[in-house]
Amino acid sequence: MNAFRLPVGPPSAERADAARNREHLLKVAREMISESGVRRLTMDALAERAQLGKGTVFRRFGSRAGIFAALLDDADRTFQQQVLYGPPPLGPGADVTARLVAYGRARIEFLLEHHAIERAALDRNQQVTIAAGGMSTTHIRMLLGQARREGLLHTADIDSLAMQLAAALEGPFVMYLAPEENATAGPARRAVALADSWESLVEQVLKVQ
Amino acid sequence: MNAFRLPVGPPSAERADAARNREHLLKVAREMISESGVRRLTMDALAERAQLGKGTVFRRFGSRAGIFAALLDDADRTFQQQVLYGPPPLGPGADVTARLVAYGRARIEFLLEHHAIERAALDRNQQVTIAAGGMSTTHIRMLLGQARREGLLHTADIDSLAMQLAAALEGPFVMYLAPEENATAGPARRAVALADSWESLVEQVLKVQ
DNA sequence: ACCCCAAACGGACTTCACCCCGGATAGTAT
DNA sequence: ATACTATCCGGGGTGAAGTCCGTTTGGGGT
């Protein structure tokens, strides 16, 4: 044997069976959610239906909220792809203001779409990632940085502003709309109003006027 | 007996013993929290320490989150008093921009102070009131209305803007900071930065420049 | 092919929020 | 004072999240 070896090279990926189980659990979770909603997805039920032990479910996702977070992760990744590499104005190519506006509109649509899961991913014992390292904060900060370089913005503390704008964008959905609720006209109408309001907020911050 | 009587006049207040128990429970809850933090306030422990049945605790507050909400209510009321009737710039008398800025700063301080309880008052099965009918949204909307009357603002949809500003103000605290966490310099420093950022955000929205 | 052990698995166990409902009681009408 | 009833109280019961730890297994090393 080697006299000396580093314990791990790369942070060591999941074992094959673990990865398989993760996928399987996510698939079953999606099924259960579309059949009977977020509320009825219990850890016991999920484990049983997936033919796995409950311990396994927890090992894979850490908590009930973790399952929803993992589910969102998928969708998020797709969304992020559009933002980073898709066509303008959402993707690169348009001017900063247009991109910020487009991002807000797209993000609102996304949040409306995944609202139930988004809510379920909240965890009483865990800080929420939305405002912190969340996609919105990061992307908005990036755009604000660009805006400042272009002289559209003179704010010193871009980090704080990014966080506040991200909260302004996502907050109303995460904090306001009811858990599962009738997805009738109500939320959708409000979403349009919020999107318009976001647009004018962005324009004021970037002093387009 | 009277031939006919309305079932209730005023929404019928709490019975004396019930009110007494509520106060007592809140007092004990405050003690327990300051002794060992929010996490260890369980319904069983509270009931036992208060020498009351668990059922009573639930009857009085509805849920665990309800206790924290009731606790916050006190503090909120005091805060609101300052905002409505206190000295300017927080209270009435100063110009709109100054009042908005002052409100934000005061609110941030308040949130920082009551952060642990604020988080604990969140309830997985209940929509959050912060953005909805919350004090911040209401007060900000009022000030925005005044600003519009004074020609400082031309936004049509004041409701949406109020919600977004409230989210920008409170979101970072409710969503971002960790549950109980070390109340060291970290959060406080961030709070100052956010307060400054709030000020410049308000000034831009009210186009003071 | 075999060894080895870190990682994964399973499911009983613990803890806790919340429900239920029979029994007690405060406040009111007589 | 007495009776009446809406409200309250108590604490055992239930369902679900999360923990623990003994057992099993994937897969790199030899």
UniProtKB/TrEMBL annotation, chains A, B:
DNA-binding residue intervals: 42-61
DNA-binding as UniProt keyword: yes
DNA-binding listed as a keyword: yes
Pfam family, one: TetR_N
GO molecular function: DNA-binding transcription factor activity; transcription cis-regulatory region binding
Residue stretches spanning the membrane: none
Record-linked InterPro entries: Homeodomain-like_sf (IPR009057), HTH-type_TetR-like_transc_reg (IPR050109), HTH_TetR (IPR001647)
Key words, A-Z: DNA-binding
Stretches assigned to the HTH tetR-type domain: 19-79
Protein name: TetR/AcrR family transcriptional regulator
Organism annotation: Actinacidiphila cocklensis
Taxonomic classification: Bacteria, Bacillati, Actinomycetota, Actinomycetes, Kitasatosporales
